[in-house]
Amino acid sequence: MLGNFSYCNPTKLYFGEDSLEALRTELPKYGENVVLIYGGGSIKKNGIYDAVVRILQESGKRVAEIAGVMPNPTVDKLYEGVAVARAHGADLLLAVGGGSVCDYAKAVSVSVHCDEDPWEKYYIRFEEPSCETLPVGCVLTMVGTGSEMNAGAVITNPHTHQKIGHVFADEKIMPRFAILNPRYTMTLPQYQMVAGIYDIFNHICEQYFSGDDDNTSDYLSEGLMRSVIHASRIASRDPQDYEARSNLMWSATWALNTLLSRGKSTDWMVHMLGQAVGAYTDATHGMTLAAVSLPYYRHILPYGVAKFKRFAIQVWGVDPAGKDDEQVAREGLAAMEAWMRELGLVMDISKLGATADMVEGIADATILLPGGYKTLDRAEVVEILKESL
Ligand code: NZQ
Ligand code: ZN
Fold first, then answer.
1. What gap in Å lies between CA 182 and CA 191, rounded to an integer?
2. Whose CA is nearest to atom 20 of ligand 1?
3. CA of 203 to the centre of ligand 2 (A)
4. In this structure, are strands 152-157 and 162-167 parallel, antiparallel, or unpaired?
5. What's the pLDDT tens digit per position in 257-276?
6. Is the pTM of this model over 0.85?
């Protein structure tokens, strides 16, 4: 393990079919005023809303609501939510939904008592909160982002074509508790389920494809990737398979709760490319990642052959006998591509609404990060985007 690091994750997890009952023990820890935050209405159709509201009422809470948090929540919606939370004197923000709702709650949390513009402060200047922040609790209904146990909050500014994630440094921004009931994910449309599965997988890849030291985090990543691949095949055939859905839920949480990145530099360029595509198309997050991944990984493979070879053997079971390193490495990516097609992921950004004349703008919106096997320049970003069309 290279470098010096700390590890602290204060989110308390409650997992399983009866986990919502834990709300009764969590709610008394906070004040009376709760803001219930949710998305476009799926929780009203599948009964989760009623179950949560019943417990809030029985716990004696005064509840205000922020409804209609959209996938890829926008800065305008953030301003709206801040006003609701201020007017209600919120003591707790309770997010019930997927990554968008959880991220949004965190963005509201750091903005309610902030007297500056939160978009400018947190997403342009990348500052940390200098004000009181509100506790966030989370009842997760969609698996993928890991937002239930991390301090990330991605917000989109459609006016400027920017989709930016801020991973807050302070663990206080992580949800105080998260309720993970795999049954809640079973009403997800197949498209969202597989997008979430690829999001999990890619979070692991982003932390795996860096460094050349012998690092425990990489072994953890390989185990998680194998579990995700295995469970995804079962879940895509039978979305009602509790065992597979529960394994996916648990893997998603551990894929992005800061554990796997310890002692690593990490890459994150697939996310930077995917987020820029998302800023232009408002497409589903996991699909934007799927559509840019293979052109990106094929581009950087020559700079990290040893790791791509290890990925091929350890994750995809490629037999290296009689092959040179690069051939083994490429067979790993071919196996990954076959799996992605099997799941039905979107493999081209054109199918997500991106057009050739958007490429330059998407390249401008792509934040270039160091840390992977090759730091891209803008020309390479354009090349990768064109190959992803
Ligand atoms: O809005 P409703 O009606 O609830 O419908 C949602 C939404 O349309 C639906 N859904 C969720 N649970 C459901 C359900 N439909 C039926 N049954 C259920 N049980 O699914 C749709 C997508 O939900 P969303 O929350 O947008 O998906 P996801 O969890 O993938 O979150 C995406 C957001 O998270 C950000 C993404 O950029 C994007 O903005 N990310 C956050 C990260 C973090 N905090 O660390 C990291 C990720 O890489 C990602 O960037
Ligand atoms: Zn992601």
1. 17
2. 192
3. 6
4. antiparallel
5. 999 999 999 999 999 999 99
6. yes
